[in-house]
Specification:
Layout: H1 3-19, H2 24-37, H3 46-49, E1 56-62, E2 65-72, E3 75-79, H4 90-99, H5 107-115, H6 117-126, E4 137-143, E5 148-153, E6 158-164
Antiparallel strand pairs: 1-2, 2-3, 4-5, 5-6
Helix pairs in contact: 1-2, 2-5
């Protein structure tokens, strides 16, 4: 997406938020959704018009293991409170998540996590885990093209399309 397109998208997000009495959280949610849906210019799909930026971040314990739970609109999933012990390529990241009985988050879930990262981080630390890193990309389970997968950067919410699967990135499984 070009800088001009990004600016037009930001303008549309601000206009949309103002029309719907939303604040910065709604703008962040819109931008995350727009990135997830590959929106350019002022196109606003129905999914975003009805997106509820409110979320409930809580904790949940299953079989003695603690997780952060994120419930936002149609999304309801649990998040591991720890990153994988080291950076991994995409195939190893999928295997790591699967071995834990979990999976890699979708791009949409990752962008929701970005929107509510402060609440997720606070809850994860409260439960004895660690905050999402803002200096590394995290693998998503979303493939883009053959040999490539998407990632989410929690420093700015960027959802990159074209990372070689052999690159090493952080992993935070969800279920």
């Amino acid at each position: 997406m070009s800088k001009k397109q990004e600016f037009k998208l930001l303008e549309a997000a601000i206009k949309y938020a103002e029309q719907n009495n939303g604040g910065i959280e709604l703008v962040k949610a819109f931008m995350a959704g727009a990135a997830a849906f590959g929106i350019e210019g002022e196109e606003i799909p129905m999914e975003l018009k009805t997106f509820d930026p409110e979320a409930v971040v809580s904790d949940i314990e299953i079989d003695g293991v603690k997780y952060v739970r994120l419930h936002a609109g149609k999304y309801d999933f649990r998040i591991d409170i720890h990153d994988a012990p080291n950076l991994m390529n995409w195939d190893d990241a999928n295997k790591y998540a699967e071995d834990k009985g979990m999976r890699l988050f979708s791009v949409e879930e990752g962008l929701l996590m970005y929107c509510f990262k402060d609440e997720i981080n606070a809850k994860a630390v409260e439960l004895g885990g660690e905050a999402l890193r803002e200096d590394e990309d995290y693998w998503s389970g979303t493939e883009s093209t053959r040999g490539y997968a998407r990632s989410v950067y929690f420093g700015n919410g960027n959802a990159s399309n074209y990372y070689y699967k052999y690159y090493g990135y952080d992993v935070r499984p969800v279920a």
